[in-house]
Amino acid sequence: MAIHDSQSEYLLESGKEAEDGFAINQVHGNSQSRKLDAQCTRISSVCVVVGLFTLFLAFKSWTASSSHVQSSKCDDLNGGYRCQPEISHYWGQYSPYFTVPSEISSEVPDGCEVTFVQVLARHGARDPTAAKTIEYQAVIEKIQSHVKSFSAEYEFLKDYTYSLGADQLSVFGQQELVNLGASFYQRYHTITQVFTPFVRASGQERVVQSAQNFSQGFHVARVADKNASITDDYPYQIVVIREEDGSNNTLHHEICTNFENGQNGNKSDVGWEAQKQWVEIFVPPIRSRVNFNLPGAELTTSETIHFMDLCPFETVANPNGKISRFCSLFTEEEWHHFDYYQSLGKYYGFGNGNPLGPTQGVGFTNELIARMTKKPVHDHTTVNHTLDDSKDTFPLDRILFADFSHDKLVLASHKSR
Question: How far is CA 31 from CA 73, 125, 126, 278, 331, in A?
Fold first, then answer.
């Protein structure tokens, strides 16, 4: 694993451009400008996901109290996104933040107190990647240029205009992270009333914006808390770690050359091979039905999957997370099969199914251990020692930490030992 340090840090003030202290972020997709409305600073709806949102806690003897819960139509402080969960929770990594049901109580045990909290979160919901948005648009253009007769439930495609952007957070995705920051504050209010989290982000724009939105939500919750015992020094500083060749980054996965280029660890060799076997089972009947209802389209296997992808991406492109019309074109069982398809790609691409998958999360795991033990990191992994050897960019005297990354790195960190 060829790793090198570089001077890669810079400090960013979260929401600096907002005069009133509330970050209003603007992102662009296609020719359409999107702005997170000031109303989106509300904390009435908070989303938390297990699997892309990880908390590491330390306890000591005490008794904790619970925080107030507020709800909105689709999002709940405890449950996250809940519109049509029978399908929306089965979109793989494209699902909005939600809490996975568990028989283990999330309450702090009697006689204990939370003394340390670390959140590692994926960025919020986004547009498709630049490459995928081109492919998705091509599918729509193919349908509209070849299909002359649309069955009833597909009729909307006749006049449908593709308007998804590329790579940026959607307004809905920005709100997810505002909500997450407020949820984080309320859930651990016994220490968030006194301490401010140390925040880092990997360098891609949507990840940095997610850290800003999280900080905004945390700030809004603190301002609303009359029992907060600390003067809120907002906007908070964010350490941003560049995603560039030659720069170590524990919040980014494309660093290990043996993984990216090696014969045994390449995602396309391992993850895709696993997915391909399942594709041959679950896609053919879907493809046949879709092509029957869209005579002349003749969608291929990959185009059929792209057609399904439009459901989650169209949903999170709506500011309120309204379920897309694409979603009803597929059955609940088919969405479960789709979810398994995405899970195969992640497990064999970046998890325990890949010989080198979990190793990419070792650097972050070592940083977590360093924070909990308050001892410096000593390793030769993806850790950027230019940053981690400095108390300004990697302090060991804090008890609240929030790091923002990508789903692949979060999964690798989960699986690293």
Answer: 30, 19, 16, 37, 33
More confident residue, 395 or 67: 395
Cβ atoms of 182 and 43 within 8 Å: the answer is yes
Is 306 catalytic? The answer is: no
Most confidently modeled range among 20-34, 53-67, 84-98: 84-98
Query: Would you place residue 71 in the very low, low, confident or very high pLDDT band (cuts 50, 70, 90)?
Result: very low
Helix, strand and coil content of the chain, in percent to the nearest 5, comes to: 45, 15, 45
Does pLDDT of 77 surpass 60? yes
Are the C-beta atoms of residues 395 and 304 closer than 8 Å to each other? no
Q: Give the whole-angstrom CA distance, residue 158 versus residue 137.
A: 14
The pTM for the full model equals 0.83
Q: Which residue has the tokens 């002349």?
A: 296
Q: Which residue has the higher pLDDT, 65 or 237?
A: 237
Cα gap 211→180, rounded to integer Å: 10
Predicted confidence at residue 230, as pLDDT, reads 80
Q: Which of 123, 189, 219, 337 is catalytic?
A: 123
Span between the terminal Cα atoms of the chain, in Å: 17
Work out the burial of residue 409: count CB atoms within 10 Å of its CB; fewer than 13 is exposed, 13-18 middle, 19 or more buried: buried
Rounded to an integer, what is the distance from CA 1 to the centroid of its chain? Answer: 26
What is the three-class DSSP state of 238?
A: strand
Please say whether the beta carbons of 221 and 186 come within 8 A. Answer: yes
